[in-house]
Each structure stands twice: as C-alpha cells, then as structure tokens.
Amino acid sequence: MFRAELLERAARFRSAEDDPTRNLQSCPSLVLNADYTPLSYYPLSLWPWQTAIKAIFLDRVDVIATYDREVHSPNLDMKIPSVIALKQYVKPSEFPAFTRFNLFLRDRFSCQFCGDQHNLTFDHVTPRRLGGKTTWENIATACAPCNMKKGGRTPKQAGMQLYAEPIRPTHWQLQQHGKMFPPNYLHETWRDWLYWDIELEE
Ligand SMILES: [Zn+2]
Q1: Cis ω on the peptide bond leading into residue 182 (within 30° of 0)?
Q2: CA 110 – ligand 1 centroid, Å
Q3: Which of 47, 134, 146 is nearest to 99 (CA)?
Q4: How far is CA 195 from the centre of its chain?
Q5: Residues lining ligand 1 (ion), CB within 5 A?
Q6: What DSSP designation does 58 have?
Q7: C-alpha of residue 169 to centroid of ligand 1, in Å
Q8: Residues 20-74: pLDDT tens digits?
Q9: DSSP per residue over 84-116, as a string?
Q10: Which residues form a coiled coil (predicted)?
Q11: Rounded CA separation 140/105 (Å)
Q12: β-pairing, 61-73 with 76-86?
C-alpha cells in the first residue's frame, strides 16, 4: 500500500515534466555509463533517438539493444537504439546539486514528520528567524499541514519528531532512492539494465 502510493506520487511528479523523451512512442534511448549502469535512475537517463544516433556516428556510444522501428534516409537504414552505453566512463560528482528535486528525492517525496506525500513543501528545521540556514542539513520535506503546525519553531519546541536528521546526500545515496521510483513506461530492453542488482520478487 505504502509502496503503491509512493509510485503513484512518483508518476504524478513525472507527468508534471513536459518532456517528450518521457514517452515510449518517441523511442527514447536508455543511456548507460561505460560500466553499463544507468547514468541516472531518477529521472531515468534517456536521450531522444536523434541524439542517440548522432552519438553513434560520433563513435561515443555502443548500441546495446534496439527497437524494431527503423529510420531511413537516402544513405542509411538503421534500427532505432533502445539502449546505448557511453564508451568513456563519466564519473558522477560525489555530491549532487542542492535543488528542490534532489531534496525531495533524498526524502523520498514524503513529509519527514508524518510521511504524507501530498502538498509537499520545504521546512527550515531551525527556523530562519533563529538563524537557520537554507542548506541540505537544515531543510526537510514537510507537508503543508505539518509545516503550518510547526510554524517558526524548532521540532523540539513544536513537539514534532523528524524521521531522520537532514543530511547532505551523496550521489550514490540519491541513486539508491531513485531506484525506488521505477518509471511506468519501461521498454522491455531496458529492464536488464535497470534492475540487475535488485533481487527478483516471486
Ligand atoms: Zn506531514
């Protein structure tokens, strides 16, 4: 139940993104790093097929799998790539950018006081009027009602408990959280590359 709600939340979040690559009809290519792990799980690293084909001709990627659909031009017939891998490994930065999206992802899109996944806002754990800064370590995801209830107080003053102390997450930690939100539009050729390290459920 909880998981279903999380997925629903993720789906709604996604639909807010007006991005043509988030649509299987447009044949996006899943982009893997040179070690064959996705460049990003959430949002999933996808390129428009035109970009993927360009990268093939620049010899920057290998084609791992293809769609059945082909593109034709006077001097080229080729299947549209569905999975490509970079030839050169891209080292992810250790610490991700401090953005709204990454902050929500760190907190798994849920209020850190009550777990609700609706009407999410950002709460200064130590309020600004008490010198609280706008940093990874002092901002927590909070639903609007909890944010209102807490007001300009510390959690202790308000008698409210955080699920976890806010931390500056590593890139790896965010990727782990991103894996909790599988897209609902997976192409069959993507699956092996997305969940290879997750135990299969019976
Ligand atoms: Zn709440």
Answers
A1: no
A2: 8
A3: 134
A4: 15
A5: 111, 113-114, 116, 143, 146
A6: T
A7: 21
A8: 556 677 899 999 999 998 988 888 899 999 999 999 999 999 999 999 999 888 8
A9: EEESSPPPPPSS----HHHHHHHTTTS-TTT--
A10: none
A11: 11
A12: antiparallel
